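Sequence in, structure out.
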Amino acid sequence: MPKVIFSIKYDIEPEKREEYLTVIKELKSLIGSEGIESYTVYEQKNKKNHFVEIYTFANAQAYEDFDDDPSERVNILMNKLSDMVKQHSTEYATLFEV
């Protein structure tokens, strides 16, 4: 079955950088449920505080099932992240392997 990649690009508020890095570190340790092959976060080389989260799923069903039952801690961290992101800077993409 084809893999699915889901990405989220955004800018964070510069004054929240250290808090962001702490939250992402914890989030990376928690996200690893069944069907997710990897969860990585990158910062754009020439644009400080511009990050991309990349989720790689084993297949379309794993992608569809991902948000069905997140843990309470993951929800808390995701809410914290959303408070750090600059408004109107978020872009989403879903890619299906061919």
